[in-house]
Amino acid sequence: MQSPILPGSWLGVIGGGQLGRMFTHAAQRLGYHVAVLDAEEDCPAAQAADMHFLPSDEEGTADILAQEMSRLCASITLEFENVSAELLRIAGQRTRVCPSADFLEVTQDRITEKSQLVAAGFPTTPFRPVTNLGAVVEAGEELGYPLVLKTSRSGYDGKGQVVVRSEAEVEAAWESLETNRAIAEQMIEFEAEVSMITARNASGQIESYPLFENEHSNHILSVTRCPVSSPLKGIEEKAEEICHGIAGSFGVTGLFCVEFFVTKEGELLINEIAPRPHNSGHLTIEAFTCSQFEQQVRAICNLPLVPATMIHPAAMINLMGELWEGGEPDWTKLFAATDSHLHLYGKSDPRAGRKMGHLTVLDQSSSEAAITAKELRDSLIAEYPSPASID
């Protein structure tokens, strides 16, 4: 059995985004040192980390730095799945890596992921692998329209996917993806989108958070609330059973998130797995006894996991780059609001569709918290006088 990795040790993160930043804060609070491997000099995680391994454009430098990180760090984890699995394998020759390179490869490829989930008996959206135009047409005949056509790799936040509503749209949709390996999925008329975050340590202990209920805008998560609405309460036990089954079947060590569709019949269908913390889990920082980031630290260090106990109903709302279009947001009302918690990620270039931060609100119910979060988000839009009103 792996021994626990205790405070004072170094932990590594491959990827330097906001998830790595919040992992770094959690690890440092527990007494660990954190090193980040990312090619962006001013990435959010590197701003907080104790050390930054910065690859150059020269081929092979990332591999060399992964070796250096593995010599320094007692355990290495991920904050973004679109990285080379080979980096994890290189690091894994010298130190623990969580998740494994094998599990990362499964979750990096939609065809592999769904095929292995189905083979293991887990429910997924109906799909067909497609490698050419004719295969997409056949998928449309088998699954019906509309279809969601997705690249097999590297897609996130709606990138790398297109809705195909009829056979007449197939050719243009296929060409737009610019790939010869994709997946055609039946478009699900769902009642809700939910997610569940699960951690597993090397000793085999597993803990899941309750279901999170998610709203999306332009394919990007907008609002998450917990607890879920009453009609969804009955599926929490099934979701946990699926997540625990995935953790065991794939031998996961670390923390992962399963995104589900809830059908009109109340069935759960797996949309995809993220082998890392998840945007929907940000509210765990204030609303639970242990955040998803501390749970990730515990899992990769083989420490005891903390039961996911909710302290207060909550909602989280993403703060997107659009809020900065009229200038710096007006933070006044937000700071005047009780039980609201602002997290900014240190990104210097706000642009449409970019997550700049998030806001978590605690309230008597998650629905009330969601309403307040939206109102506070809208209050951030700076109101400037029109040119005609300026003397």
From TrEMBL:
SUPFAM superfamilies xref list: Glutathione synthetase ATP-binding domain-like, PreATP-grasp domain, Rudiment single hybrid motif
Keywords: ATP-binding, Ligase, Nucleotide-binding, Purine biosynthesis
Pathway connected to this protein: Purine metabolism; IMP biosynthesis via de novo pathway; 5-amino-1-(5-phospho-D-ribosyl)imidazole-4-carboxylate from 5-amino-1-(5-phospho-D-ribosyl)imidazole (N5-CAIR route): step 1/2
Matches recorded under Pfam families: ATP-grasp, PurK_C, RS_preATP-grasp-like
Molecular functions per Gene Ontology: 5-(carboxyamino)imidazole ribonucleotide synthase activity; ATP binding; metal ion binding; phosphoribosylaminoimidazole carboxylase activity
EC number: 6.3.4.18
GO CC, any one term: cytosol
Domain of life of the organism encoding this protein: Bacteria
Residues annotated as binding ATP: 110, 150, 155-161, 185-188, 193, 216, 271-272
PROSITE patterns: ATP_GRASP
Catalytic activity: 5-amino-1-(5-phospho-beta-D-ribosyl)imidazole + hydrogencarbonate + ATP = 5-carboxyamino-1-(5-phospho-D-ribosyl)imidazole + ADP + phosphate + 2 H(+)
Record-annotated ATP-grasp domain positions: 114-301
GO annotation terms (biological process): 'de novo' IMP biosynthetic process
NCBIfam families given in the database record: PRK06019.1-5, purK
Complex formation: Homodimer.
Family: Belongs to the PurK/PurT family.
Function: Catalyzes the ATP-dependent conversion of 5-aminoimidazole ribonucleotide (AIR) and HCO(3)(-) to N5-carboxyaminoimidazole ribonucleotide (N5-CAIR).
Name this polypeptide is given: N5-carboxyaminoimidazole ribonucleotide synthase
Species in which this protein is naturally found: Aureliella helgolandensis
Organism taxonomic ancestry: Bacteria, Pseudomonadati, Planctomycetota, Planctomycetia, Pirellulales
Gene it is expressed from: purK
